[in-house]
Design a protein that fits this description.
7-stranded parallel β-sheet; binds nicotinamide-adenine-dinucleotide; 3-OHbutyrate_DH; 7 strands; Rossmann fold; 8 helices; EC 1.1.1.30; globular; 2 domains; alpha/beta; 47% helix; single chain; oxidoreductase; 13% strand; 3-hydroxybutyrate dehydrogenase activity
């Protein structure tokens, strides 16, 4: 990257950023100079402190990504405090694993609302300002499950495939402007979302957490290594630099080889 502070004076809104991947991305964007709007239900004070330590300004908005009115209020709060949203990272997401015929209806509704529909709302509220300034970056954190399926994950796979589709259409509608829209498709990252799946494997198979982690990876991820939030933050900041000007509508896998198989 030509300029380490290439996002100075810009504002980034990252949904679901009090832990895991979202926090790692927010930290990378702060290191590149962006002011940050955090969102999510985790440890807000610790997350904010990790950002302001880099010298940027950061606020938290508690919007629930299932609630369109609260999403609108969050984008309005970012505009009121910082003058607009230049970088929008749609990251909030939840998981639930069950066979399709036994999938709890309320879990299906929540997963579709948080993992897909919230991005429609954030995009429709943030895009007019980006168009007016003729610069913007929208990065949707999809998943390998936006590209391929896995048994037991019907709602998640449906939502993430939908998010990749929304990414392509938004990229086409903004082609020819200074706004880009892309998706990143991570494989397994060791966050609270995946920790639950590891705990379930350990309990089911009567093995240690370490053995369950190895089994989870061996099943899908040829590298045998977890992807890290820091690596994903690096991809997002690259997409937000001039190097990313003509990356449009991509679904960028970062998955240890999962989807190469
Ligand atoms: P995480 O559980 O650590 O973080 C999820 C974040 O979303 C938290 O900040 C949480 O408070 C927030 N959140 C949950 N429900 C919310 C709601 N209703 N409104 C607002 N915020 C809400 O999970 P993570 O692993 O960091 O996942 C982040 C994103 O990355 C998700 O979209 C997930 O699908 C995706 N992803 C994760 C992995 C992985 O292996 N961990 C792989 C591919 C994609």
């Amino acid at each position: 990257m030509s300029n380490l502070n290439h996002l100075q004076g810009k504002t980034a809104l990252v949904t679901g950023s009090t832990s895991g991947i979202g926090l790692g991305i927010a930290q990378a964007l702060a290191q590149a100079g962006a002011n940050i709007v955090l969102n999510g239900f985790g440890d807000v004070d610790a997350a904010l402190a990790s950002l302001t330590a880099t010298g940027v300004q950061a606020i938290h908005h508690p919007a629930d990504m299932r609630k369109p009115d609260e999403i609108a209020a969050m984008v309005a709060a970012a505009q009121a405090r910082f003058g607009g949203v230049d970088v929008l990272v749609n990251n909030a997401g939840i998981q639930h694993v069950a066979p399709v015929e036994a999938f709890p209806v309320e879990k299906w509704d929540d997963i579709l609302a948080i993992n897909l529909t919230s991005s429609f709302h954030t995009i429709r509220h943030a895009l007019p300002g980006m168009r007016a300034r003729n610069w913007g970056r929208i990065v949707n954190i999809a998943s390998v499950h936006g590209l391929v399926g896995s048994a037991g994950k019907s709602a998640y796979v449906a939502a993430k495939h939908g998010l990749v589709g929304l990414t392509k259409v938004t990229a086409l509608e903004t082609a020819g402007t200074g706004v880009t829209c892309n998706a990143i498709c991570p494989g397994f990252v060791l966050t609270p979302l995946v920790a639950q799946q590891i705990a379930d494997i350990a309990a089911r198979d009567g093995i240690s957490t370490e053995a369950a982690q190895a089994r989870l990876l061996a099943d899908k991820q040829p590298s045998g290594q977890f992807v890290t939030p820091r690596q994903l933050g690096g991809i997002v900041t690259m997409l937000c630099s001039p190097l990313g000007d003509e990356v449009r509508g991509a679904a960028w896998a970062a998955d240890g080889g999962w989807t190469a198989q």
